[in-house]
Specification:
Elements (H helix, E strand, L loop, with lengths): L1 E6 L5 H13 L13 E6 L15 H13 L3 E6 L6 H7 L2 H7 L4 E3 L3 E5 L8 E5 L7 E11 L3 E3 L14 H7 L3 H15 L3 E11 L7 E11 L2 H12 L7 H8 L10 E3 L25 H6 L6 E5 L8 H5 L5 E4 L2 E4 L9 H5 L5 E5 L1 H9 L4
Parallel strand pairs: 1-11, 2-3, 2-7, 3-4, 7-9
Antiparallel strand pairs: 1-10, 5-6, 7-8, 9-10, 12-15, 13-14
Bound molecules: iron/sulfur cluster (2 copies).
Organism: Megamonas rupellensis
GO molecular function: iron-sulfur cluster binding; metal ion binding
Protein name: DUF362 domain-containing protein
Amino acid sequence: MKVSVVKADNYNIEIVDKAVNDAVNLIGGWQNFIKKGDKVLIKPNMLTNVTPEKAVTTHPEVVRAVIKAVKNMGALPAVGDSPGISNLKSTAKRTGILTICEEENVPFVYFKQSKAYNYMEGRFIKQFELVDCLSDFDKIISVAKMKTHVFMGVTGAVKNLFGCIVGTDKARFHLRMQKHIDFAHVMVDLYQTIKPTLNIIDGITAMEGQGPMSGDVVDAKIIIASSDGFAADLIMADKMGFDAEAMPIAAAGIEEKRIVRLKDIKVVGDGKDEQFHFAKPHTYKSMQDTYVPKFILKLGQNQLTSKPVINKNCVACGRCSHHCPPKAITIIDKKVNIDYQKCIRCYCCQELCPHQAVDLKDGLILSLLKYIGIYK
Ligand code: SF4
Ligand code: SF4
């Protein structure tokens, strides 16, 4: 399996265009993936309505480069997503992606309605409710953002496909799959159901720390491409300086023997030797249950995880309360309260808060394990 990593200094239109095309040419060229007349859905990461320099969403110039390449193949591109939270239209505008679509005269598809898609080999899910228009397209290209993720460790090409689940339907998956590894198995099933033709990750600016929304912007100056989203994500996590195969989605795929191993990936491109040391999400170690003796696990799962705590930035907007899957958040007299007995530690509140008002605080046992050195 091949993954290309190509350097790109900034979002200058020519630089991005060259980097995206070089990255795809190194893994066989566009003709390997797209045929004349194909209807192609380009799926960027449009998590919420923020501007591109926040590194929360795929940069519009990367989307533009993919649109142009697909058009050059004589195919018919469209761009679409369903943000987890904010209004579709305002997100499309604020992220700059709607403007790019208008300039390139390409339709932007608002994901609104769902329909059932079967995946009988699924380990956890044999039928997904996904955006209805998915089946109208011949090919799908996942155009993701290189970021850390407080629940999944990292988010790249595979997790990007979670946006094909329409709007707030996403919360149901957090309710059903409360453990990192269970949710990760669902992501493996989701990827196999959608099976993108091509995966491109925008890592020109990336996010470290408390991603996917409240982390810090970091310049990695790379574009990653592969026909295999798991391989692209493994290399992305490895470049971040993380234990790539221990990230929950990779660990789930490896356990199911469904994904390539890191050692079997051939990395090509002028960025292949780049190495970074991204700040890890606060929850990084608690994702790896194998570090924890079983008797401690039994003692109290919640004490082994970080819990969300509201800080002084809170303006009581209610977004977290509205989207909390088990309805553990209430707001009374403009004060946010979290019922920790109900809280399933999905960190949607931390992910979705527009004011960075949710901190993650270690549970008692997790603090103790860090203190005595089992977790570092
Ligand atoms: S924590 Fe954030 S999302 Fe929740 S009410 Fe406060 S500002 Fe809004
Ligand atoms: S309070 Fe936050 S972490 Fe807990 S269940 Fe609700 S959204 Fe998830």
